[in-house]
Write the C-alpha cells for this entry.
Amino acid sequence: MTLLEIRNLKVYYYTRRGIVKAVDDVSISLDRGEMVGLVGESGSGKSTLGLSIIRVLPPQAKVVSGNIVFDGTDLLKLSEKEMRKIRGKEISMVFQDPLTSLDPLQKIGDQLVETVLEHERNLSRKEALEIAKKTLQNVGIPPERMNNYPHQLSGGQRQRVMIALATILKPKLIIADEPTTALDVIVQDRIMDLLASLKKELGVTVLLITHDLALAAEKSDKIAVMYAGHLYEYGASKDMISKPLHPYTQGLIDSIPDVFVKKEIREIKGHPPDLVNPPKGCRFHPRCPLRMDICSEKEPPIVKVNRRLVRCWLYA
Amino acid sequence: MTVLTVLNLKKYFPLQKSFIEQLITRKKLTVKAVDNISFKINVGEVFSLVGESGCGKTTTGRLIVRLERPDSGKIVFEGQDITFANEKLLRPLRRKMQIIFQDPYASLNPRMTIGDAVAEPLIIHGIMSKMEAREEALKMLESVGLTPPETFYKAYPHQLSGGQRQRVVIARAMILKPKFVVADEPVSMIDVSLRASILKLLMKFKNTYNLTMLFITHDLAVARLISNTIAVMYLGKIVEMAPVDELIENPLHPYTKALLSSVPTIVPQMKKEKIVLRGDVPSPINPPSGCRLHPRCPLAMEKCVKEEPQLKYVGNGHYVACHLI
C-alpha cells in the first residue's frame, strides 16, 4: 500500500548564477513499512528531494510544480500551520550531523519531552517523561542519560537520540539523510540495525538518503538512483545490484570497491554536470558508454521493465 | 627489500589539565595515540593501516614522515634511523617521502596557482630552475589528468572541484619522484563516482615508479582494493596484520571480525559470523587493562583482563594479538 507518492516534482534553486534544477520531474512512490535507499552523488538532488517532502527547503529553493501525496493528502497544498502538525508527528527527519541538530543547551530528556508536549497537548509532563524514557530504551540509551547534555554523549549515542526524537511520536515516515556518514562502520551498522528493527516493530516507512550504494543495497528493500536532478532507476535492491539496467547504475556498481569482492574498479569518465546548464537530452549522456544519437537530443521517458522503473533510451 | 621498519613506536600526547586537577593530582594525563607498534614495509608494497577514528592510524603516518616526534621506539627509512632526526637531517629525506592528506581543500594554498603549487617542491629542493620546474609541472599536470595543463597551470584552487584538487595534491607529492608516500584517507572526501579514478591514479604512480606506500583508511573496501598487506589498529595497538586476501578471508581477531561484519557490501551473503561488540570505543586516556578490547569482546576470558596479548605469528604472513589464538 502506498504511503507517499511524489508526482512530477520540480524543485529549483534561484541563485545568482542562474536557476539550478536540483530536482527535475521526479516521480516516486513508497509503500508502507519499506525502506527505500535514495542513492546519488553530491549535487544529485537527493537531499533536496528529502527536504521538499517535509517542506523545510532553504529560502532560495522553490517547488515549481508537482505533487507530494502523503497518506492521501497533498503536502504542497497545506498551510504552514497544518504542515507543522505533520512534521515530527507523521513525518520526521534524521540528519547527518546530530551535534548541529540537537540543542546543546538542553538536556536530552527535556528535548524529548518538549517534542512530545508540542504535539500531544493533552498529556502531562509526567506522562511525556515516561514516553521519553521508553523511547530512549528502545534505541538502546539507558534512561539515566536523560539528564545528559548532547556533548556528554558519543557520536553514535547522539545519533541514537536523534532517532529517538524522530520516532517518539510514532511517525509513519522517517526521512534519514546520510544518518551514518559521520560515524565509524561498527557504529553505522548498529544504527542501521536500529532503523531496521524500528521499521519492523513500528511498521514505519524509511527513506534512507545516502551516497553509499553498498549500504543501501545491504539494508534497504528498494533502491532509487538519482543523477543530476533526475531519477534514473528504481526497483528492488537485490535485482538492481545483480542486474542493473541503467548505464549509470552499472557505472556506480563498477566504480565502487567492495571488501568481499575481488575486482577491478572502473571509473565513470567525466564529471557530474552543472545543473544551471544541464546537458541536453539525457543528463548522463556525456559520460555514458552506451550513448546513442537520440540521447543527446531528447530526454528519455520513464519506462517500466520487469517491475523496475528506468529512465533510459535503451529501454524506451 | 625493506624500505621502512617501525619498531616499538610510541607516541603519547600530554593532556592539558585544569587548574583544579593540577592541585589535586601530580599524575600526568596522556592520550596513548600510538602504543608500541612494529611493522615493516617492503619495496613496492602498499601497506594499509585500517581502524576507526581515534585508533592512532593518522598519528602513525605523521610520525613516520616525522611531522611528529615519537616518544620512543625506532623508525628506520632506507637503512637510516630517523626516529629523532633533526630538521637538517630530515630535509633531504623529505624529497623521498611525501604525504597526501585527506582534505584537498586544506592542503593547497588558496592564493597560489595550481602550477606554482606543483612546481614549488622542485624549486625548494633546488632541483631545477624556475623555467625547468614549470615544464616539469606541466608534464605532471597532464599525467594526473588535468588537461589541458596550460589552463590548469594558471587556475586557482577555488576554481577546481574536490576531485581535481586531490589530483593537484597528488601531482605535488609525485613531482619529486618520491620512493615512499603516506596517503592519509586520500579519497574519503571525494565523490563516489570519482573515487575510482583517484585510486587508479595512485595505482598508476605506484606501478610506474615502484612506489612504496603507507595507506591510511577507515574503509576496508578501499584497503582491499589497493593494499598488499593490511594492519588493523585498535586504541593505539596493531591487533592483526596479514596479506590482504588472508586478512579478509580468514580474519582471526574478534575486532577484525566485528569490523568485517559491519562493512556494507553489495554481496551481504558473503558475510560470515556476525560479531557484535558491546558499547563504544573507550577513551585512549585510560585504556582498559590487558587486551584493550576485553570490555567489548564477546569472547573475553579472565586472562584478557590481566594480560596484554602480543602479536603472534600464525603462518601465511598472518600476525594476531589475541589470547584465543
Remarks:
- Chain B has a mean pLDDT of 92.
- The radius of gyration of chain B is 21 Å.
- The longest helix of chain B spans residues 192-209.
